[in-house]
Specification:
Length: about 300
């Protein structure tokens, strides 16, 4: 397999770290881009993705785009900042991909769908319910517009992610451990109506590596999601609590969306059919429960 030079944007984040580690472990040369972390850790190369002049200097044979504000509530609270990361930055990187000839894989989200017609194939019509989904869809359209001009660009949509975190709130899944472990008497309402397909960042990293090394052109849009049955966030707390041998009497099932909450689709299951047809392994290394068992023991 030919060694490639890969630039990972947002490399200090949950997904970015996993992607960089997997490419390095499998023999590629990786430039790990970060902004605030770069001055504190020599493993990272400093780059502010919102600095157009700095971004213009970016070049790589292959490139994985993983810089995004994934939490929809944050997108709603600071739409201008989130729009720059989720839409304007990908547009800039896509234009560079077209100019310089590298492959850009843009990471998008299942939240581009309204959750009413799952499972979703790659050609399903997007209909996001909230600003985060709309901004990511804008990013998709921007990068795919460059693909129409001849750029090597693919969108990979993924669902809610979890994995090895530096702090639990890096992931909307891992942070549930904090809720389970809070045995102070405080009660928590937990979503038991929106079904999710929590996917480990190590599996996403493997898929990205395989796609980057496929000896054939990639289609415009692909989906990857854990093949495991759906879980609500309440279901996830039950599994995490069992691993930790802790009671969850303080966690209250919430069977409908709270009034005034950021709209969230109820079921955005992504079909990995197109990815499987490319010959990419769409399985997962460990089940959700088994990963938590090994993670807690580590």
């Amino acid at each position: 397999m030919t060694q490639k030079t890969v630039v990972v944007t947002g490399a200090s984040g949950l997904l970015g770290r996993a992607v960089a580690a997997h490419f390095i472990e499998n023999g590629d040369s990786v430039i790990s881009l970060a902004n605030s972390r770069a001055g504190k850790d020599p493993h990272y190369t400093k780059l502010d993705l919102m600095d157009n002049d700095a971004v213009d200097g970016l070049f790589s044979t292959h490139k994985v785009d993983g810089a995004a504000e994934r939490r929809p509530d944050v997108a709603e609270a600071d739409p201008e900042k989130a729009a720059k990361i989720n839409a304007a930055v990908p547009a800039k990187l896509a234009a560079l991909a077209n100019q310089q000839g590298f492959l850009l894989i843009y990471i998008s989200t299942d939240y581009v769908f309204n959750g009413k017609d799952a499972p979703y194939e790659v050609d399903a019509t997007p209909d996001p319910l909230q600003m985060y989904g709309r901004q990511k869809l804008d990013g998709e359209r921007a990068v795919l517009a460059e693909r129409e001009k001849g750029a090597k660009i693919t969108v990979l949509r993924v669902p809610i992610l979890y994995g090895k975190t530096e702090y639990n709130s890096e992931s909307a899944v891992n942070v549930l451990r904090d809720v389970v472990e809070d045995q102070s008497g405080k009660s928590y309402k937990m979503d038991a109506y929106q079904v999710r397909f929590p996917t480990n960042v190590e599996d996403v990293a493997r898929v990205l590596f395989d796609l980057s090394h496929l000896p054939k052109p990639l289609p415009p849009i692909l989906h990857y999601s854990s093949p495991a049955p759906a879980l609500t966030k309440y279901d996830m707390t039950v599994i995490i609590a069992a691993v930790l041998s802790l009671p969850i009497n303080h966690i209250i099932k919430e069977t409908s969306a709270p009034v005034g909450a950021t709209p969230r689709p109820e079921n955005t299951q992504l079909s990995a059919k197109a990815l499987r047809q490319l010959g990419v392994d769409v399985g997962e290394k460990q089940t959700f429960a088994d990963w938590w068992k090994s993670y807690v023991k580590a």
